[in-house]
């Protein structure tokens, strides 16, 4: 039986897709050189100290989310990255690492953990919340696709590495759209040059929301509107 593919290349618009991806990556470099002003901490709710795990996107690491992590720490949260280098996809090692981080934070603090995932990291966060909802208070995703297969210029890289993906995660593909039983906030952008914005839209329900921001894919976690809303959602009652 053929294994279903998570991605496909946008063959109907190859030049546009390549240019969109290049522009998105250029935005990331520009953000490194000249970051957008972050919302002042005085203008967002103060954190209660609970652990917030920030999971990186495909082919990135904590270096791509460090600004959001640092800002959340200063806002009053125990914000942490995943600490294992590059995210090469849903490999057994990556999935085991994410589950271990949730377990460790839960044991250490005795409190539920909030998960923020950028792109593929958001899929990890959603599936963790399905597997262990008693340990997770809420999930926030940034440009995370949930409707597959997705047409992305990163498809050749994903397909090359797919041989190392965890077979159990691959079998979950038909169920990825189902929302976890915790509050979920999904950010999407029509300016996304990596992931089609339509593929990020959740089926809204009580506790499940889609929020649009005007941001490239690679820097959505540094967008001032997204950062403000993230702080507001993290401070909201879990129910």
SSE map:
Layout: E1 7-8, H1 14-33, E2 51-55, H2 66-75, E3 78-80, H3 92-109, E4 113-118, H4 120-131, E5 136-142, E6 150-151, H5 155-161, H6 167-171, E7 184-188, E8 208-212, H7 224-235
Parallel strand pairs: 1-6, 2-3, 2-4, 4-5, 5-7, 7-8
- The best one-word shape is globular
Overall pLDDT level: 94
Measured as a percent range, the helix fraction is 25-40%
Question: Strand pairing plus helix content: what structural class?
Answer: alpha/beta
Radius of gyration: 17 Å
Total helices: the number is 7
The ordered string of helix (H) and strand (E) elements is EHEHEHEHEEHHEEH
Low-confidence stretches: none
Q: What is the beta-strand fraction?
A: 5-15%
Q: In which order are the strands of the major sheet placed?
A: 3-2-4-5-7-8
> How can the largest sheet be summarized?
6 strands, parallel
| Distance between the first and last residues' Cα | 42 Å
- Got a strand count? 8
Describe the structure.
With 239 residues, this protein is of the alpha/beta class. The protein has helices at residues 14-33, 66-75, 92-109, 120-131, 155-161, 167-171, 224-235; strands at residues 7-8, 51-55, 78-80, 113-118, 136-142, 150-151, 184-188, 208-212. The strands form two sheets. It has a six-stranded parallel β-sheet, sandwiched between helices.
Summed up:
The chain has 239 residues and is an alpha/beta fold. The protein has seven helices and eight strands; from the N terminus they run E-H-E-H-E-H-E-H-E-E-H-H-E-E-H. The protein has a six-stranded parallel β-sheet with strand order 3-2-4-5-7-8, sandwiched between helices. Strands 1-6 form a two-stranded parallel sheet.
């Amino acid at each position: 039986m053929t294994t279903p593919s998570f991605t496909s290349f946008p063959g109907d618009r190859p030049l546009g897709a390549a240019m969109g991806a290049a522009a998105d990556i250029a935005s990331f470099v520009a953000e490194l050189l000249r970051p957008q002003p972050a919302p002042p901490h005085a203008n967002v709710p103060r954190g209660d100290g609970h652990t917030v795990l920030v999971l990186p996107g495909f082919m990135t690491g904590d270096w791509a989310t460090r600004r959001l992590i640092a800002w959340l720490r200063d806002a009053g949260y125990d914000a942490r990255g995943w600490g294992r280098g590059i995210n090469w996809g849903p490999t057994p090692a990556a999935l085991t690492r994410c589950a271990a981080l949730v377990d460790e934070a839960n044991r250490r603090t005795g409190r539920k953990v909030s998960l923020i995932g950028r792109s593929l990291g958001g899929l990890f966060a959603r599936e963790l919340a399905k597997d262990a909802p008693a340990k997770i208070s809420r999930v926030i995703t940034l440009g995370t696709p949930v409707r597959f297969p997705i047409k992305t210029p990163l498809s050749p890289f994903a397909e090359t590495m797919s041989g190392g993906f965890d077979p159990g995660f691959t079998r979950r593909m038909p169920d990825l759209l189902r929302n976890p039983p915790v509050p979920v906030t999904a950010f999407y952008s029509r300016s996304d040059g990596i992931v089609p914005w339509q593929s990020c839209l959740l089926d809204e329900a009580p506790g499940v929301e889609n929020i649009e921001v005007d941001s490239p894919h690679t820097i959505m976690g540094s967008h001032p509107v997204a950062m403000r809303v993230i702080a507001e959602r993290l401070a909201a009652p879990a129910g």
